[in-house]
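Person: I keep going back and forth on a fold encoding question. Show me how you would write down a chain together with its backbone fold. Please set it down just below, with no commentary around it:
Helper:
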Amino acid sequence: MSDRNLDPTLASDSTLVSGFVDHLAERLLKTRTLYLTGGVDDRVSYRLVSSFLTLDAEAPGEPITFYLNSPGGSVTAGFSI
């Protein structure tokens, strides 16, 4: 894998950056790590809850690491997380 695939600052095309982010998210899921950055809304909440449930179904009782860096957002969406 070239350094261009690992460093999003080297990408001159938004497709490369998007691909890097997708690759990073996939690798984090494999290590049972989830993260939330930015505001909380129904879409974000749905994706996170789906990810938590999927990881728990794959290996019940195993730890899931969750990183939260959010200014807030929808209270009801946050409650579901």
